[in-house]
Amino acid sequence: ICLESVMMQFCGNKLDKKDFFGKSDPFLVFYRSNEDGTFTICHKTEVVKNTLNPVWQAFKIPVRALCNGDYDRTIKIECYDWERDGSHDFIGEFSTSYRELSRGQSQFNVYEVINPKKKGKKKKYLNSGTVTLLSFLVDIEVTFLDYIKGGTQINFTVAIDFTASNGNPAQPTSLHYMSPYQMNAYAMALKAVGEIIQDYDSDKMFPALGFGAKLPPDGRVSHEFALNGNPQNPYCAGIDGVMEAYYQSLKSVCLYGPTNFSPVINHVARYAASVNDGSQYFVLLIITDGVISDMAQTKESIVNASCLPMSIIIVGVGPAEFDAMIELDGDEVRISSRGRYAERDIVQFVPFRDYIDRTGNHILSMARLAKDVLAEIPDQFLSYMRTRGIKPLPAPPPYTPPGYPTQI
Ligand SMILES: *[C@@H]1O[C@H](CO)[C@@H](O)[C@H](O)[C@H]1NC(C)=O
Ligand SMILES: *[C@@H]1O[C@H](CO)[C@@H](O)[C@H](O)[C@H]1NC(C)=O
């Protein structure tokens, strides 16, 4: 696969005036040609209002989208005058190829914009203006895996909701139902999602936290306790270790409340704040019934954490309305708190019930769950690395056993 992208910028010169009042509102449409001679739109520029000499913003496009990786394939570009009602006026067109464009700004990349109809009619018709390539920059896309191979470690922390809204663990209706015969909703979600993320964790040691319970011996409410009962060393060995610690906690703590996310987010953020060289990236997995009590605080913690090497995956269990979780996900509206916006999207929400059958006992598609749980992590990760200018380190050379002759 071709992971190259190009960044290009174009300007127009003396384009035809189309509007009765004012000049033109030009924009460009790029087409990739297909094997069968048809064309597919692959990019549209923005409209520059009321000018015959527009300078369009630079844009980035994957080479795959532009020419399917074929440097000599025709790329057709049409120029239009934008109309409010959508009946855009055709100004003219020209074609080129990746190979031509790659010569950069030069006499080869000044294109006459031709309107074939006018050319046929008017003897003196020369062109409908020109379009010039101002810059052409190739950008090899680095991937999430390039960083992992280069040594970046992913640190997954698990946090489990132990609040009373989940129901009494002695009752079968509880999402934390303790039964020797079946897994409860939390255990199922933890096991399924844990097995997915386990593969990405370097050492498979997971710090695991609980929140919203009263702890023994004194019944104090905690919003960030170690599931294994050891705050100095909250690590559990693999997802099986987390499961074991979860069952232990369930026996010893008392589900309580309120449901505060902010303390566990801040807990991981404290560690994430101490790493800024790209050597580690933190992912907090919160499993919850979604009934959140500290929405304002949580938003602020997320906005605070959005500048750190950190992502949050929220898995919602049970039948509740997940509106608040969807809001935290921030795919529709970027999260903000007291007028401050998150620097980037760091939250991914996954409603677990969408992946289990009607009896609630079987996962319908582990592959689909895996895909959706991890869907946004690589982009969130890359957006952090990119804005910090952190490049992946070269992968270490493959290991050669000692005493084995190295080939020259
Ligand atoms: C991973 O993150 C947790 C905080 O959630 C922290 O306790 C632990 O020390 C981190 N691990 C490493 C290797 O930094
Ligand atoms: C967010 O960061 C500010 C500034 O560091 C801090 O004062 C505030 O307490 C943080 N908010 C939360 C909810 O932790």
TrEMBL record:
GO BP terms, alphabetized: cellular response to calcium ion
Keywords annotated in UniProt: Calcium, Metal-binding, Repeat
Cited Gene3D superfamilies: C2 domain
A Pfam family of this chain: Copine
Gene Ontology CC: plasma membrane
Ranges where the C2 domain occurs: 1-111
GO MF term list: calcium-dependent phospholipid binding; metal ion binding
This protein's record includes keyword Metal-binding: yes
Similarity remark: Belongs to the copine family.
PANTHER family: COPINE (PTHR10857), COPINE-8 (PTHR10857:SF133)
The protein's name: Copine 8
